[in-house]
Amino acid sequence: MDEKLSVSDLRTEYTRNPLGIDEPNPRFSWVPLSEKRGRMQKAFRIIVSSSIENALNLEADIWDSGKVESDFNIAEYRGPPLRSFSKYFWRVKWWDQDGQESDWSEVAFFETGPLNPDDWANAAWIGGGQLLRKEFEVMDDVVEARVYISGLGYYELRLNGKKVGDKALDPIWSEYDKKVYYSTYDVTHLIRKGLNAIGIILGRGRYAPSHQPTIFKLKYYDEPKAILLLRLIFNDGSVKNIISDKSWKCLEKGPILSDDIYLGYKYDFRLEPKGWDLPGFDDRDWKHCSEMKPPKGRLVSSSTIPSTKIMGLLKPVKVINPLPNVYVFDFGQNITGWVRLKVRNATKGTTVKIRYSELINEDGTLNTLNLRGAQATDVFILDDSGDQCWLEPRFTYHGFRYVEVVGYPGVPSSDDIEAVVIGADLERCGSFTCSNQLINEILKLCIWSLRNNLNNGIQSDCPQRDERMGWLGDLWLSAETAILHFNIIRYYEKIIDDIIDSQRDDGSIPDFVPVYWEWDVYPADPAWGTALIILPWYLYQYYGDKRILEKSYEPMKKWWLLLYSMTKDGILYYGKYGDWVPPGRGKSFEHCPHEILSTWILFRDAKILKEIADILGRVDDAKFFEEKKQEIYEAFNRNFLRESQGWPGLARLGYYSELKTKDGNSILLGGSQTTLALPLAEGMVPREAFDQVFRELLRLVKDEWDRHLNAGIIGAKYVPEVLAENGALNLAYEVLTQETYPSYGYMIKEGATTLWERWEKLTGNAMNSYDHHMFASVGAWICKYLGGLRIIKEGFKEIIIEPPLIDNLLHASLSIETIRGVLQIMWSRGSNAVVLDLSIPVGTVAEVRLPKLNKKASIYEGDCRIWESGKTVNQVNGILSISEQKDKIIIKVGSGRYSFKMESE
Ligand code: BGC
User: Fold this and answer.
1) 774 CB near ligand 1 (under 6 Å)
2) pTM of the complete model
3) Please, are residues 690 and 676 in contact by the beta-carbon 8 Å criterion?
4) Which of 375, 517, 762, 879 lies 20 to 30 Å from 92 when distance is taken between CA atoms?
């Protein structure tokens, strides 16, 4: 067959046809396609043109990469410097290993925004009021119009009476003293010939918080302000700029009585200046805007970073009327967002109050205790609205499942209310399902918790209480689950940037980013700060893109060296949170002391840094980290690897259970699942002790904890991984599918629709959020060990596919749009057959491991028998080799679709 090679899914900076980018050397990526099996990209060629016609005619008047030998489908733009406000059109083609050439791709484009500060055409940061407006006249036909805008803390942009764009909360948050993000909008369709009106509503957000939460003091940067450049391009190529300046008018006190992400929104419809965002509005009483001090941070484009948008709408599943005139709606799912409420025939001055909560009391009233200082209340004072109007807050968001409505004129029905689900506009790229419904439910919890916390450009710990900070420990622990389900690279690159922006000269980084609390969070707990090292590493594993390593290597190294300088004889005693929130506790230092966890982190990070140094060609550094690895390994085992006997009469306490303190004293600890799993996971246990240490872990999991986890967020990731990697997959599966406390199944049985912060069901006012993603590492475990996928070489270059043999698990399917294309694994099994349907992207080589159910096995690919009685019986295109091991048959395959069936006798 002579199938043609083709190309699809062209992206610039991982985004389809972005507008307003400011990256000087954008990355291009594409997906090479071929129906033919076993295809690899051998070379590619990219052309960049200044017009679509040129691109169609293959005139590379901007840049021609020439034929570049590479097996990787990401490449950097290396042409002449890009110009501001310009559109570039590009195409790509590729060659396979046999020299066969694909057609040219379709044309993709990207457009640059203001690349230099001067390009903002003297636009000023303006403020002084809540609503800002300006009218301008357009005499000719506009062929293209773009707005570049930022507004701190939040803004809503309006043009001729309409909201511009579909972002829900913008801009994304940042370390405002370092960076401020702006957005780009195509507003061509909103501009009219004649008079136009542009308006901005300002919100306080994180920049000008209006209150202080109960725990730590929030940073206050300055009063709200905005900057805007509207570029109008006419038929003859001429340009007219409308900029934010003192000629704008503003309304000092408007209808927004208050807005705050924690407290909520208070709006008085009676004060709304009707038609203020339309041309012709009489703004004679409005004052002129004041020019404001610009924020310290530089303006950076957010156009390739997923912004917060409305991601869905939910209808209530239940309405309760617990008290007279009090209505409680249950949306059946814990979400992040707010509600929209329809009112009819309102009377002027009526006040409608909406409160949000994750929990309800037995009598049906809201339980808001765990929100702590977040009042999560939206208040609307109504006007005579005629027929009907919608009440919907701005510049705030809540984490909730239940909503209470008080003061509604009449009786609200389910038709009058809907919940607005917000979140980062991340493309879903992965999915998994299997025959065990509980596993599917657990994964659903992970995805919802991640979704609910991926907003505003950060990954918050929780979306509801007076906290909502981008804690780094939580971040890295659930990052792989997020990467396996969302196209999240640009989002995570942005967060890594936040970490780098917050790094101090001595290398110190904080526990969360951006640092919106005044509280000193430097230096981070090593098990939190490790996000700076492991998150870029994960991105490299999954996307194969080196740029993130290049960008973060020096900051990573500085952070590592700072921690290393704090060690004593190779042990890091410094820590803050440890294996956070194991059963029954918050902190748990006796269960997993800092000495063990922090030193382990230092070792693991040295290991990663050694590999990164190798990749980046930093020979001396690679040697340095290799030595440090060894040094820490020895110190760790010298200090902690001993079989302590415990106190007379008590049971043996096990390995890694005796702690030497800084001053040389010995303390006996209960050896814990986490302290055993950590060194086992990272090759830190000397070979001769490995079996005993592993057996000890089995004993703790099986006997002491009756096949349950006794671990905090760190152990919850590593205990199941270590079990699965060392032949105890069935036990790990049993642990993860428990339904009694402490377990994920227990949360579900108790009604969880998102992951809890604690293993316990707590309903008081302490630390018990119902929407924390930090236990979501289980999601990646499910994809890897039940989906049967392991990445061997970065960017899915080499993978292992191994359907698991687990009692009662009969089928599973995993699908991921990887950087190389779609990867699908679908397996099922009966008592004597395993069926495996695969789709492997171009450029990936998979080692398929089929578990033998019995001694004798024969294998078919499609209708063709390929293996029988221990040998290959037929050669099939795409299959590189077949070999046999004790308990499995190994088939190496290149790209393409395969359908394997293994029958055992
Ligand atoms: C947050 C956590 C965070 C922890 C650090 C909590 O308040 O909600 O998720 O990692 O503090 O100890």
Assistant:
1) yes
2) 0.97
3) no
4) 879
